[in-house]
Amino acid sequence: MPIVPLSNRASLVGPHEFYLLKILLNNSDSYELIPKDIIEEEIDLNPSQLDFYLSKLLKLKLIYHEKNLGKDSFKITFSGIDVLSIKKLYEMKILKNLSTVIGEGKESVVYMGYDFDENPIVVKFHRIGKTSYKTLRRKKRTLQGRKSWVRLSIENAESEYNALACLWENRAYVPRPLGLGVNAVAMEYINGKPLFKTDLLEPSRVLDDILSTIRISYVYCKLSHNDLSPYNVVMDTERNIPYVIDWPQASRASEDSLEKDIRHILDFFRNKYDINREINDTLSYIRD
Q1: What is the mean pLDDT of the chain?
Q2: Angstrom distance (rounded) from CA 130 to CA 123
Q3: Which fold has domain 193-287?
Q4: Does residue 142 have a pLDDT over 60?
Q5: Is the pTM above the cut of 0.85?
Q6: CATH of domain 86-188
Q7: Domain 6-79, what fold?
Q8: What is the rounded distance in angstroms from the CA atom of residue 205 to the CA atom of residue 244?
């Protein structure tokens, strides 16, 4: 059976289903699987109504069901959290329509979307441990005491949004952040292509621009990117501007992470464009 697109599933979620998803989300830190009786205590529906709406969410693959200690129990899925994010961004007048997937990584899915003026935007859904819930349950048995996958996804989104907000306010070359959903970051759409696929006419200036962004990150936002590479830089080919993307792993600035990031980007420009910059001189520029 084909999976209904995420945007269509979001449009099929009414007020009761929306409230059920919020109940499951809010209880996800306390329960690996939320017993049905907990849900019954928090929603004003009779048993047949509750079963109807739970069945609908199950068919849309927005929740997961399993018998746990003999009780019907449920958990929100990543698609369920995505739907909550879509609804929130819509209420914030940031996202009008969600379109197609334009990128996918181990811990995120990136969609094209459109705002209320029909301008293209990007919506990045964070999904830590993006896999089946049966697999997650097996993994979680070895991770007792750690945060839930749901919580980690939410915190990753918050981390990326906060990093982008600080960087943008300080005039770094990053996509402009537009809003934060539950596990989603809406941001400006950059019409370009990855640095590693671009043949630069002014590689030295582009390198300077990238290093300028990393300096702002380190000095003003007190952050290290932690994953800087030519794969995480998008070239706006019309304006010839490099935008540093993918900031969810950004952490408190440290010498080790800074040096690792700088070595990666200097190696790329040395190997492709024969531009040689001393690592110590570059680090001094960024710190000062």
Answers
A1: 92
A2: 17
A3: Transferase(Phosphotransferase); domain 1 (1.10.510)
A4: no
A5: yes
A6: 3.30.200.20
A7: Arc Repressor Mutant, subunit A (1.10.10)
A8: 15
